[in-house]
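Run log // design_07
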């Protein structure tokens, strides 16, 4: 099977998992529109592509170095808790539409936030490293060209899913009430903080030989 097609399927279905950045995309799209949601999706897909390339290049063993894994895990946890706290703060406000300029994210700011939130979770690169090890064993990655096609397919597949998600949420958002927006903010905020707490806990208690975890 063509490596690009396999990569597309991997990128699409890995991105399909509900994680903290998916919650962030949904909430931000409802609040700030399709372009912001698409920018978050582009940040997620960019990191998926970069980490898929790192996995193909054999960078995963770097995360067996305890200080590296610990630093990345704790930074990722802090980013998620910060995003969750900010979202909950907005949900608890009495008056709708009182966002500060910082909270009403621009596409550029949303893209950078998604880059940081996705890239700082060490489980992302561990997962892609494991996937590429399996792909190599299956004979899908046997030349530099096939590896490049597989990585490109991952990025395109991931971006395809997040584009569909942002578009669907934006269309649905036209009929979402203010109360529903508040509920969405509350759920997304709690979810982000919960994911951050789990990431911090697993980072601190995991042994030096880590295993792949769920996607951000």
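design_07 sequence
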């Amino acid at each position: 099977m063509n490596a690009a097609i396999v990569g597309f399927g991997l990128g699409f279905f890995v991105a399909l998992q509900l994680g903290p950045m998916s919650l962030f995309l949904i909430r931000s799209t409802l609040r700030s529109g399709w372009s912001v949601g698409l920018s978050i999706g582009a940040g997620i897909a960019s990191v998926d592509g970069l980490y898929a390339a790192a996995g193909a290049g054999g960078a995963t063993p770097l995360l067996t170095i305890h200080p590296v894994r610990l630093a990345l895990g704790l930074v990722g946890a802090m980013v998620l808790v910060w995003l969750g706290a900010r979202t909950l703060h907005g949900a608890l406000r009495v008056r709708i539409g009182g966002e500060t300029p910082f909270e009403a994210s621009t596409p550029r700011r949303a893209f950078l936030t998604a880059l940081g939130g996705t890239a700082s979770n060490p489980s992302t690169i561990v997962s892609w490293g494991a996937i590429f090890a399996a792909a190599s064993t299956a004979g899908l990655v046997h030349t530099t060209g096939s590896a490049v096609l597989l990585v490109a397919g991952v990025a395109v597949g991931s971006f395809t899913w997040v584009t569909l998600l942002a578009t669907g949420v934006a269309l649905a958002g036209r009929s979402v009430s203010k109360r529903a927006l508040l509920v969405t903010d509350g759920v997304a905020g709690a979810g982000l903080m919960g994911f951050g707490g789990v990431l911090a806990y697993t980072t601190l208690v995991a042994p030096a030989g880590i295993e792949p975890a769920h996607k951000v």
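The chain has one domain: 3-205.
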